[in-house]
Amino acid sequence: MKSIAWVTDSTCTIDPEFARDHHIYIAPLRLVFGDECYKETIDITNDEVYQKLALHEKAGSSQPPIGEFVELYESLKDKYDEIIAIHCSSKLSGTYETSMQAAEMAETKVIGIDSNVGAFPLREMILKGVELQQQGHSALEIKQEIQYIIDHMEFFLIPASLQQLHRSGRVSGTQLVISNLLKIHLIIRFDKGKIIVQEKIRTFKKAKQKLMDYMKVDLEKMKSICIMHANNISEAKEIEKEIALHSPLLKVEIMTFIPVVGILAGEGTIGLSWINKYTK
Predict the structure, then answer these.
(1) Contact by Cβ (8 Å): 5, 80
(2) What is the largest CA-CA distance in the chain?
(3) Which fold has domain 4-29+64-151?
(4) Whole-angstrom distance, CA of residue 152 vs CA of residue 276
(5) For residues 16 and 20, what is the distance between their CA atoms, to the nearest angstrom?
(6) pTM score, two decimals?
(7) Whose CB among 102, 141, 155, 252 lies 3.0–4.6 Å from 70's, allowing a Cys bridge?
(8) Where do the structural domains in the chain lie, given as residue ranges?
(9) Which CATH number applies to 153-276: 3.30.499.10, 1.10.150.120, 3.30.1180.10, 3.40.640.10?
(10) How far is CA 64 from CA 11, 31, 139, 210, in A?
(11) How far apart are CA 107 and CA 236, in angstroms?
């Protein structure tokens, strides 16, 4: 069995202890509040993120510096037979491209995977990859299997605030103005790595019901489902109860969003993601 190192970023939500035990190296994204910069999940907690959001109008995020990746690849290239780098969507962050450039600079052979997403689905891709590696599969075989997950996952968001999404260029000014004037809630969906506006709905209750409707379409073919929230556990538990009414045996997980999502979409944001069963 070949030894494999995994390189990813802090959007993966992998437990640090699991990462240490399974050769997963996590490069933290940066969170920026005014002139202050923090390493996501390392220098700042979720609670501190929302405290700072209340104080700073100017908040944002940035990818890990290329030098950090170069140093990491230099340290890994002689320790492992193969290296897999899997990162959050390249359509939303430059992290994947930076990681690949760093591997080239470090003269390190890397199998790169653009996950087209982040959070729960990215974590599941890595967990599946580790399982396959333990079964003796090569890095290329693992990449192929992960591509099946990429092609069969869904990810929806109801952002609590569009202001930050607008500032980051992920929601247009027209969408922001109309939503504010009419108090419209947007349902956002990941589509091949990009964020698209799936629906515009007048009330949060109706938006949440629409989210349930999308879920019901795939209910019979789901492998698992995850409810994600940005400091909104009460709403997440309500959604969990509703899912249980439709499919009491389905595995449901509640996950706190990584801080960068709270910055981009606002405190209170709710997300729903699942991976469908597939045949090769």
Answers:
(1) yes
(2) 59
(3) Rossmann fold (3.40.50)
(4) 5
(5) 6
(6) 0.91
(7) 102
(8) 4-29+64-151, 153-276
(9) 3.30.1180.10
(10) 12, 10, 24, 36
(11) 45
Q: By three-state DSSP, how is residue 203 classified?
A: coil
Q: How far apart are the first and last CA of the chain?
A: 24
Whether the Cβ atoms of residue 244 and residue 230 lie closer than 8 Å to each other? no
pLDDT, one tens digit per residue, over 210-237 is 999 999 999 999 988 999 999 999 999 9
Residue 155: how many other CB atoms lie within 10 Å: 24
- Name the amino acid, one letter, at 198: Q
Residues 6 or more apart in contact with residue 166 via CB below 8 angstroms: 172, 173, 175, 176
Q: CB atoms < 10 A from the CB of 68, how many?
A: 16
pLDDT in tens, 91-142: 999 999 999 999 999 999 999 999 999 999 999 999 999 999 999 999 999 9
Say if residues 146 and 131 touch (Cβ distance below 8 Å): no
Tell me, what amino acid is at 160?
A: A
